[in-house]
């Protein structure tokens, strides 16, 4: 492998939830001399455990993992915050002569790393909550139509279902009174390493993926998800923040508040996560450089396909 860091590729393993990203990321890291950098927006939070699929020490297989379990759940941690932290970790890993392997399913994080956001006002949490409520009730397309009425130029640049960026555009407009499209030219240049990121996306059978999602959701509830949320709320974690707004946790909060039954919370969580998996796949179809791997991360055919794309210098 080329010893010059500026020539080395950086690998990104992504795909829908429950597709086996962790397993494939660790497998790849062991073969390229890599260290894993997480880009899952829920695994970053401390104390948020049961429904996050954070890798166990056994699953890590001795591979160093970064940006997991390090943010207080009451902190409004943004994609820009993650991109800054990830950039620092990538530099550290390469300074040791190792290869960064980015692993996660939050496409907005990865895109922000490769295509930085511009300087913008700090998030107004009340406004963010209102926009999220609209998204959940009427769908991301409704938010895009709202943006189109306010700033057609900005809306033309954004995919209809790209809710994170559409919401951020609306927030900037409402907070500053200025068009989002007029402020975008102020965005920072991509970091040097952005061009070296090679993106691989898992694409398993939809039917089998949904089976895994449903079983995983049931297992989370059986393994104490409700009790975990009660403890987090008792410790002062807000049910309005990003951490407990995540899939699974949000419906448990509704159950605890008496807004739905436990059975309803389980079934709604399954539906939420299945819909999220659809959105993840749709997101990555818009990434022109993505290499699709048809299967789960622990499938041998997927591993062979990945090695074929990566080429020489990787141990089998």
Describe, in plain words, how this protein is organized in 3D.
- This protein has helices at 21-32, 57-60, 79-95, 107-114, 125-138, 140-150, 152-157, 163-176, 180-183, 206-222, 225-234, 249-256, 262-284, 300-310; strands at 10-14, 34-38, 65-66, 99-103, 197-202, 291-293.
- It is α/β, with parallel strands linked by helices.
- It folds into 3 domains: 5-117 and 195-206 and 279-310, Rossmann fold (3-Layer(aba) Sandwich); 125-186, Histone, subunit A; 208-278, Orthogonal Bundle (Helix Hairpins).
- Strands 3-2-4-1-5-6 form a 6-stranded parallel beta sheet, sandwiched between helices.
- It is globular, with a radius of gyration of 20 Å.
- The model has no long low-confidence stretch (mean pLDDT 90).
């Amino acid at each position: 492998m080329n010893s010059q860091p500026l020539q080395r590729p950086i690998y990104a393993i992504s795909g829908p939830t429950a597709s086996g990203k962790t397993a494939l990321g660790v497998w790849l890291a062991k073969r390229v001399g890599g260290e894993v950098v997480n880009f899952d927006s829920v695994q970053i939070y401390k104390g948020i455990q049961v429904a996050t699929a954070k890798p166990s020490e056994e699953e890590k297989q001795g591979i160093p993992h970064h940006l997991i379990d390090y943010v207080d759940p009451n902190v409004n941690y943004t994609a820009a915050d993650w991109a800054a932290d990830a950039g620092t970790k990538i530099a550290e890993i390469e300074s040791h002569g190792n290869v960064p392997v980015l692993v996660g399913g939050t496409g907005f994080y990865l895109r922000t790393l490769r295509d930085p956001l511009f300087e913008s006002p700090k998030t107004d949490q009340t406004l963010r909550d209102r926009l999220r409520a609209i998204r959940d009730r009427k769908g991301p397309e409704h938010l895009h139509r709202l943006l189109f009425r306010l700033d057609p130029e900005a809306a033309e640049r954004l995919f209809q279902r790209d809710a994170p960026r559409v919401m951020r555009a609306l927030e900037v407009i409402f907070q500053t009174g200025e068009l989002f499209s007029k402020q975008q030219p102020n965005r920072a240049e991509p970091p040097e390493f952005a061009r070296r990121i090679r993106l691989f996306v898992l694409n398993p059978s939809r039917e089998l993926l949904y089976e895994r999602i449903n079983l995983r959701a049931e297992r989370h509830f059986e393994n104490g998800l409700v009790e975990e949320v009660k403890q987090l709320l008792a410790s002062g974690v807000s049910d309005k923040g990003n951490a407990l707004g995540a899939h699974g946790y949000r419906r448990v909060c509704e159950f605890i508040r008496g807004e739905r039954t436990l059975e309803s919370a389980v079934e709604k969580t399954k539906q939420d996560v299945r819909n999220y998996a659809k959105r993840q796949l749709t997101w990555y179809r818009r990434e022109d450089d993505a290499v699709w791997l048809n299967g789960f991360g622990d499938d041998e055919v997927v591993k062979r396909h990945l090695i074929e794309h990566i080429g020489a210098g990787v141990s089998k």
